[in-house]
């Protein structure tokens, strides 16, 4: 395979470059731009500049303005209070089968977020070893509608974990679950490739079909709230700003 001058230039792109909130351009952004593919440099940089500066709260507000839905799954909470965003890779299994977790790690792509639906919380399907392997494979985070364990390690790992519960016991390496199929959690349907964002406040899931529209709305929410902060710094009260006085 030959390498063109364009390929060389793409490899030298500064993927850490960011632009200011007021200069972000989302005109051509799609959910595929969550990952740099060698050709989407501008879209990737603008999208990262937004997502690194918005919260799950702001994305939820934006999505609610579009769909009258929050995208929030209340029962799943942050375990180690780290922020993360990316496309979802789904898995579904039973609480006595942590083997499906190992299979999901191998099947997911770099930059994915693993999202597990588990039938109950009696046993943990995820812990320190799985987190270490997933992180080393380039997976960005794990979300569990079910239980995790090894909190003595997970609380201090540089790998975001979200779960609905935790416990010390685990099942067996059965590997009998399903991978990358549609799931439903607390009334929220989640498809492979949907967008996830989570932080200290909780988690939000956005259908991939509404991703671009939600990102534009999220930028508007971020700019509006930034302007409100400036007004407060200048001496206005929140009641005055929202028109209550």
Task: Tell me the layout of helices and strands.
Layout (H helix, E strand, L loop, with lengths): L4 H7 L29 H11 L4 H12 L9 E2 L5 E10 L5 H9 L5 E6 L5 E3 L1 H9 L4 E8 L2 H4 L6 E6 L11 E2 L3 E3 L2 E3 L4 E5 L2 E5 L4 H23 L4 H4 L4
Parallel strand pairs: 2-3, 3-5, 4-5, 5-6
Antiparallel strand pairs: 1-6, 2-7, 2-10, 8-9, 10-11
Helix pairs in contact: 3-7
Describe this structure in words.
The mean pLDDT is 93. Strands 1, 2, 3, 4, 5, 6, 7, 10 and 11 form a 9-stranded mixed β-sheet that branches. This protein is of the alpha/beta class and 245 residues long. Helices cover 32% and strands 22% of the residues. It contains 8 helices and 11 strands. It has helices at residues 5-11, 41-51, 56-67, 99-107, 128-136, 151-154, 211-233, 238-241; strands at 77-78, 84-93, 113-118, 124-126, 141-148, 161-166, 178-179, 183-185, 188-190, 195-199, 202-206. It has 2 domains: 5-70 and 208-224, no CATH class; 77-206, 3-Layer(bba) Sandwich (Glucose Oxidase, domain 1). The longest helix is centred in the C-terminal third of the chain and has 23 residues, at 211-233.
Number of strands: 11
Radius of gyration computed on alpha carbons: 20 Å
SS summary, helix count: 8
CATH superfamily placement of the largest domain: Ribonuclease E inhibitor RraA/RraA-like
Reported by name, the CATH topology of the largest domain is: Glucose Oxidase, domain 1
């Amino acid at each position: 395979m030959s390498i063109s001058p364009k390929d060389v230039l793409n490899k030298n792109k500064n993927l850490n470059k960011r632009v200011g909130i007021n200069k972000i351009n989302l005109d051509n952004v799609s959910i595929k731009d969550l990952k740099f593919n060698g050709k989407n440099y501008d879209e990737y940089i603008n999208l990262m500049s937004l997502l690194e500066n918005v919260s799950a709260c702001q994305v939820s507000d934006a999505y609610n303005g579009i769909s009258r839905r929050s995208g929030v799954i209340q029962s799943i909470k942050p375990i180690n209070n780290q922020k993360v965003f990316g496309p979802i890779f789904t898995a579904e299994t039973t609480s006595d089968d942590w083997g499906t977790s190992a299979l999901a790690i191998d099947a997911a792509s770099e930059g994915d977020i693993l999202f597990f639906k588990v039938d109950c919380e009696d046993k943990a399907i995820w812990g320190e070893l799985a987190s270490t392997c997933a992180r080393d494979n380039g997976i960005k985070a794990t979300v569990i509608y079910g239980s995790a364990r090894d909190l003595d390690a997970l609380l201090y790992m540089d790998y975001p974990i979200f779960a609905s519960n935790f416990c010390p016991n685990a099942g067996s390496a059965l590997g009998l679950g399903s991978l990358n199929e549609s799931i439903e959690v607390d009334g929220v349907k989640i498809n492979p490739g949907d967008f996830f964002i989570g932080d200290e406040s909780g988690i939000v899931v956005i259908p991939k079909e509404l991703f671009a529209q939600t990102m534009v709305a999220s930028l508007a929410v971020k700019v509006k709230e930034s302007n409100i902060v400036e007004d407060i710094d200048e001496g206005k009260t929140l009641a005055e700003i929202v028109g209550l006085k």
